Amino acid sequence: MNHPGIYFSVIWAGLLIISTILLNPISTQHTLRTKGSYACPPCGCGMHSPEKIFEQAGNCPACMMPLIKTTGLRSPFFEALFKVERFISYFHFKLFYPAYFLGLFVGIVGLLRYRNKGLVALFYIFFLSHVFYAFKHQLSGTSYSLFMPIRWQFFPVAFLLLTGPALYLYLKNRAERKKQLTKKDRWHFLPGALVVLAYTLFFIGPEDWRDWARYNNFDHYIGVAEQFTFLFSGLYYLILSVQVIKQEEQADSWAKGWLWVQLLILISWSIMLSANLVLFRMMSTSLDYHPIWTLMALFSLAGAYFMLFKQELIAMSNPKKENRIAEDLLASLKLRLESTM
């Protein structure tokens, strides 16, 4: 079938295979005990510095992350950006977690309320997909996490690939005044459904599966393929969304604002993923994508505000001024009133 949902499903499957081929040798090189120059990938453990170099491949004694070779490119800016855990942990407790919990509560209640209204439900799906993804990455693995078992890294609430289609279909149906999705529209959600299915299998499957899928202590092949697919999928649906807005005669700032938000998230993700791939060979955990989690916290607060106080913008339910009296009768009453006055 000629459909974007099919294409992005194939892309995700291809990236999943590629990641297992490219990242597996890197993650297992510590078993070879080869000599060279190695360092801990940047994180908050404090072992990543030019002075702390290891002569053999292995694991960092502080965080147990696989060591990476130091012969590649160096960037003090990105190294500092990835290892600000001690500074950022304060904001996780004071800002990030409250924002995520508020967003999830308001979003779930709203989705249940408007579940039968396709147009409104699409916006809630777009919102919750981002917040759920950010929330899941805070469950385990850091000093400021919720200390869930490692198994919960595969908790099947990864809806990142639903964000682009949900926003696009929301704006498209909003412009066309449609209230329900067609069968063809539902195919856009196929990649996200496949990712959730994969997570579910590894979540309920034996522990050996999860040990194989994780190429370091906190990241796994499914998540890598999901993030890189999101860059392609998100950009594609963002372009489609912009085209919808351009065709709309009276596109308001509400619709344009969410496009800017999605673009900002995509840019941040591209920068962090590219830096991780080029500089750290994907061995710096995605838990350290601090700019993204900051954006997600602000996104959660903004979305919760509109859902609580600006629901008419989401549902396009601005009241229309209509006369309940026929025009001829209204004209007659007007003449009688003027005569009496």
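(the above was protein one; protein two follows)
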Amino acid sequence: MNRSILRLAIPNIISNITIPLLGLVDMILMGHLGSASYIGAIALGGTIFSVLYSFFSFLRAGTTGFTAQALGGNDKTETIYSLYRSICIGIPIILLILSLQIPIAKLSELLLDGSDEVKALAISYFYIRIWAAPANILLYCLNGWFVGMQNTKIPMFIAILINVMNIIFSVVFVIIFNKNVVGVALGTVIAQYCGLTLAIILLIKNYKSYFLKINKDILFNFEKIKRFFKVNTDLMIRSFLLIISIAFFTNQSAKLGDNILAVNMILLQSFYIFSYFTDGFAYAGEALVGKFIGSNDKNNLVKVVRLLLIWGFCISVPFTILYALFPSSFVKIISDNPNILLEIKPYYIYMIAIPSITFAAFIWDGIYIGATASKAIRNTMIIATIFIFIPAWHLLTPKLGNHGLWIAFLCFMTARGVAMTLMAKKNIIQTVKNQ
């Protein structure tokens, strides 16, 4: 079982490493331009897309769960139709995003806090990067299907290509053509279409035998569509609340000034880096949990859940040690601004606390998604956001300022892990009846 977990997790970890690497490169490019405004603009611009895509990330997660369960049940027809349905929903989403880009930008400008300079740069970033939406949405569908098929190597190749190309083009546009945040956005757009092209090539090369002539009666089967939308609506709410929480954190940081915004975004990179390592095992959980539920294999389901949580804990230990021993080294990689380097020191404790506090939530996410336990994962997110994060922020920040904001955020992550642990027996283990 450990070999199966690692076979799926390691390619995901490799591909995920490139994501924070890209974020770090963007921060480094902006951090060395001499103004905290550029870091803030990338943070706010990225927040717009995080919130926007949070509505539609269910296309990846839902497709993985349905595909893995169909594969476990040896249902070849339903295996490919889970991809067909996902793409059929993805295409109108793409058209909707592109047609509403001006209202989205105007609304974002009203809701986001920050200096006029930061907001203006963030909106410039938005109007360029929005044209990556078609590639981004279709990649949700394709990558979700690949993981459900127990193949994490293809998403790894795609992610590596996207992020390497993104870094190359961003460096060229920023350093050579002096395009600052616009250059970073252009790099993202070009890289996304490179990734989509590779995904389509690898789909045809590796899974051509799965392709079936589309039967409208099967594609639009009422019960299948109803379940697809029910699960994905719950996942959409869950993803939206997660991203809204991070966006709220970013927005509250901006209210504390450009330097605090830059400080918090740098520290948040340590959160992302750890999450992408842990998500490698969460994605393995999506694939394996879905497969074992599809094949009605309770013994292996219980075993894989236990081992995934052990792996999550084991990953958290070295990260805690590294963050505790070398916090300033991590920060200096991103920015050499003396004001930021001085202001960030009191907040190192939160970077050190992130791994041990957050690993359970990341691992359980993958387990619940693989089980398509969408109602439960939605409810745990509602509890953590509305009943923990917001009240904690309201009570703590007036007296503690940025410390209160960080404590509230870590309470939010703790609540997610605890709630999913308490609900796991009913929503994961007991869904399979055989022993």
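Reviewer note on protein two: DSSP finds 18 helices and no strands in the chain.
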